[in-house]
Amino acid sequence: MISARAAANCVAAAGLAGTAVLFRFSPQEYSFYPRCPFYALTGHYCPGCGATRTIAELLHGHMAAALHFNAAVTLLLPILLWYFGTMYWTALQDNRVKWPQVPQWSWKVALAGVLLFGVVRDLALTIF
To answer: pLDDT tens across 25-51, in order?
Structure first.
């Protein structure tokens, strides 16, 4: 059985490898990144559309471009990094996986916000 520390290190290594690929190979220039199945089926953007391009732009320090591609991901990414970073630190220190506790209402607010963002963004792109 693999320890929590080793599993966390494997996940962190995979995340860093993915980040390095995204930094080196821009989604605007290379077509090997997966396309959104929701967009392919409906022709409408999902709340996650543009997330790959957003993260690539953030890695290069282009905040305005990242906000243009997906503002929700740009604003939520620091929270997600804190969340996974806290879990990773606990796995390294205590050799156990313990996810940080967040208030129950925060998940509902975040989900509603992301869904509202997806609808408003799609409507704004349709109108303009």
So the answer is: 999 999 999 999 999 999 888 999 999
Helix H segments across 25-103?
A: 37-42, 51-59, 63-69, 71-94
Torsion angle of the four alpha carbons 82, 12, 68, 45, in this order, in degrees rounded to the nearest 10: -110
The answer to whether the CB of 59 falls within 8 A of the CB of 23 is yes
Mean pLDDT of the chain: 92
Helix (H) or strand (E) run with residue 120 in it: helix 104-127
pTM equals: 0.84
* C-alpha 6 chain-centroid distance: 23
Q: How far is 18 from 14, CA to CA, in rounded Å? A: 6
If you count them, how many residues does the chain have?
Answer: 128
